[in-house]
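Regression test case RT-17, inverse folding.

Input:
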């Protein structure tokens, strides 16, 4: 059991989401940084899709009522276990009665905004439509369909006695954080550009030549009016040549929509399932984790990408996860896990 002493600005139960329900108007949701949650889960012997906690902006304090093992991933919020510092991408045992505290965002200059906590056995909340993720907008899933509050108690999944001896009694150890493509742990410097690879969208050719060039050449600022539904950007006005409306159509996380004002919006995990704004591009899935960690006011640079490059980037991420899984198996720790395809 985990007791929430301080929930921070926004902490919720998330797994890898609930795909397959768009026809019902239900978004996939789940951890915005699925890479970070997957790594943390592997480090504590869970399948990659086990439910953990998504902690936004730090300032969170949790108490454990039983022995277990934890791993934090994503950004570093000066996490401490009973006053002793612990680093992201490390797996370590926790004893009953110990307290985990994360400092408020701003501990590191220019740091990102999300951290993920995995616990052996996962957070044992009832699944809804095949997922334990919290749909904050619709108010279902996770813990009572909402962000965590002070005093909430979260049950942990059951594990076998042998599993407990290996996982909980084992030593602390860590893995390298994902750092490919110019963005790794604690690299959110205000002077640094965050590079995102983008596929041209279905309406790309409907924009003016000036707008298409600006998409690749200009820098874009993430405005404070951004959330789990979408990141609103500020930059050059992207003008479209036709002056006619589009019929509403399906959209997915990563789509870059352009409203009439010409300022793009990148859809995130909790975005609507349909929309009528033209789609100038799509951030590739392998780079969405970088966007999820990007702090407000960070600057983005889009890089033109083709389908072959996008697939290669995805395969690179799967190889990284596979390497961690094989390390766990070499320690004779856990059952085989399955990656989300």
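Golden output:
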């Amino acid at each position: 059991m985990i007791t929430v002493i301080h929930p921070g600005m926004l902490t919720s139960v998330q797994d890898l989401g609930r795909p397959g329900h768009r026809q019902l108007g239900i978004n996939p949701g789940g951890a915005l940084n699925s890479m970070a949650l997957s790594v943390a889960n592997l480090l504590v012997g869970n399948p990659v899709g086990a439910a953990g906690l998504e902690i936004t902006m730090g300032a969170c304090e949790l108490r454990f009522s039983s022995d277990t093992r934890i791993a934090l991933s994503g950004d570093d919020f000066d996490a401490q276990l009973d006053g002793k510092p612990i680093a992201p991408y490390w797996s370590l045992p926790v004893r009953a009665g110990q307290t985990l505290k994360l400092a408020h965002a701003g501990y590191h200059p220019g740091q990102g905004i999300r951290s993920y906590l995995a616990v052996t056995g996962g957070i044992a909340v009832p699944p809804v439509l095949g997922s334990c993720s919290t749909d904050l907008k619709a108010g279902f899933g996770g813990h009572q369909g909402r962000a965590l509050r002070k005093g909430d108690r979260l049950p942990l999944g059951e594990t076998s006695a042998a599993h407990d001896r290996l996982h909980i009694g084992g030593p602390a150890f860590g893995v390298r954080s994902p750092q490919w493509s110019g963005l790794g742990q604690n690299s959110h410097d205000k002077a640094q550009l965050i590079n995102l690879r983008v596929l041209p969208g279905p309406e790309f050719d409907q924009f003016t030549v000036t707008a298409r060039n600006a998409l690749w050449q200009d820098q874009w600022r993430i405005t404070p009016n951004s959330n789990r539904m979408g990141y609103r950007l500020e930059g050059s006005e992207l003008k479209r040549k036709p002056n006619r409306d589009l019929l509403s159509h399906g959209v997915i996380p990563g789509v870059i929509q352009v409203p009439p004002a010409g300022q793009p919006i990148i859809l995130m995990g909790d975005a609507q399932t349909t929309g009528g704004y033209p789609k100038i591009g799509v951030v590739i899935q392998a780079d969405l984790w970088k966007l999820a960690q990007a702090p407000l006011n960070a600057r983005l640079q889009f890089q033109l990408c083709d389908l072959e490059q996008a697939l290669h980037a995805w395969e690179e991420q799967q190889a990284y996860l596979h390497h961690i899984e094989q390390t766990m198996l070499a320690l004779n720790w856990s059952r085989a896990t399955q990656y989300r395809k």
